[in-house]
């Protein structure tokens, strides 16, 4: 190990643009094109390859709030 005592941070959520917003998904597995995944705000999305422009979409506020709650829960354990 290059830096003993330091661990790589695990992601709180994976983000994918869809329908004009960037949505968060649970970090249990990386979202891949062709998958159907539930977002942190409850939407069911079909994952597609996003363009560079798609990534400029605003973040879903509900997903963002849920991701912050997940982060805070992880930090308190």
TrEMBL record:
Pfam families: zf-HC3
Highest taxon, organism lineage: Bacteria
InterPro entries for this protein: Zf-HC3 (IPR031795)
Name this polypeptide is given: Zinc finger protein
Taxonomic lineage of the native organism: Bacteria, Bacillati, Actinomycetota, Actinomycetes, Pseudonocardiales
């Amino acid at each position: 190990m290059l830096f003993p005592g330091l661990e790589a941070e695990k992601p709180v959520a994976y983000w994918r643009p869809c329908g004009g917003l960037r949505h968060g998904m649970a970090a249990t597995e990386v979202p891949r094109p062709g998958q159907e995944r539930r977002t942190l705000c409850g939407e069911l999305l079909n994952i597609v390859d996003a363009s560079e422009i798609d990534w400029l979409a605003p973040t879903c506020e509900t997903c963002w709030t849920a991701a912050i709650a997940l982060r805070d829960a992880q930090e308190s354990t």
